[in-house]
Request: fold
Amino acid sequence: MTTTTSTRSAPAAATGTTTDADYFRLDDDLSPEEIAVRDKVRSFAELQVLPVINDYWERAEFPWELLPGLAELGIIGTTIQGYGCPGMSRKAAGLVAREMARADGSINTFIGVHANLCMGTLNMLGSETQKARWLPEMAQLKKTGAFALTEPEHGSDSVALETSARREGDTWVIDGHKRWIGNGDAADVVVVFARNVEDGKVNAFVVEKDENNDYPAGYAPERITGKVGKRAIQQADILIKDLRVPDENRLTGCNSFKDVSRVLQATRGGASWEAVGHAMATFEIAADYASRRKQFGNVIGGYQLVQSRLANMLSELTTMQLLCNRMAELADRGQLTNAQASMVKMATAQKGKWICNEARDLLAGNGLLLENHVARHMTDMEVVSTYEGTDAIQSLLVGRDITGISAFK
Reply:
């Protein structure tokens, strides 16, 4: 597999783009290790993902055929140290999300759910024995993972989750209902969050498929259909009734929702980097289109209105990139706060949606065609602005930090 060796951000070959979206040359400051991560993910995305993803997206099916090549990249587990994981910097992990999202959001979501949320939970909240039990095979994608927190009545207020767990000897019995669980109908390892009926605290339990590739009795996932975004990654609605999980599958480090929040804070940055990827892709496509599309006898890129729109798109994109780079620096220093992560998520989601919408509008009717990729990025950005906390929720988290007053109660 060939890779790009330039320290500048290369255009996406599969979409024929010609405009460099790294306008402030931020990638010039990447370490050799970060450049290697960027280039191998970019190459995989361009050569393996882009040629097939529109067909899978339109059929609403996941491209399982891509997993062996994805595993060979050695990126699964991103920042996790040991257990066969790469132990990347926060910026390198962000580049994984950025470069994959430049090709497709569904594949990036699969990585985020499997590697960041599920593996991240196991790494942060599991014992050494539990980490050694699950993480190595997941790092090689021999097993895939899911993260079951959201419920039908508890999305933004997931802290109020109602799924319950009661202990009977060496077994836990779980009852409840989960929804919007990425890979929840196919994963080999599913982290399920439930409230302990004895003390009301939130605990985490690992549900596994057996040797016959079946889930245990009481775990009944059903694929959610009819989505307009992220169509190539499957989400599940999961009914849980009298599901029995051995005590050895209860993650020892999850003893309250504060522990869940630690995982969510650590992974929130991935959605921000993904927004950058979608915005980079659509800006590049729009700029290239403007240089080729003729109307009224001239290329539209020569008209003042179009140039103004492109300039503003690039300005907003550069702001997103600067925010994500600073976020990664603070995270690697251990200085990133919840509110700071929320501000970056809010800003990048808002700006990413706007850039994608501008690109779609600039391409006019051609922007509606999957072959031009913009519509897929645009609808995927609608999903990015929703998961990991909506813009409204992020604004309240930042607002609480500004005023010291919680608006949630």
User: Anything to note?
Assistant: Confidence is low (pLDDT under 50) at residues 1-18. The chain is about 50% helix and 15% strand. The first strand starts at residue 81 and ends at 82. The radius of gyration is 21 Å.
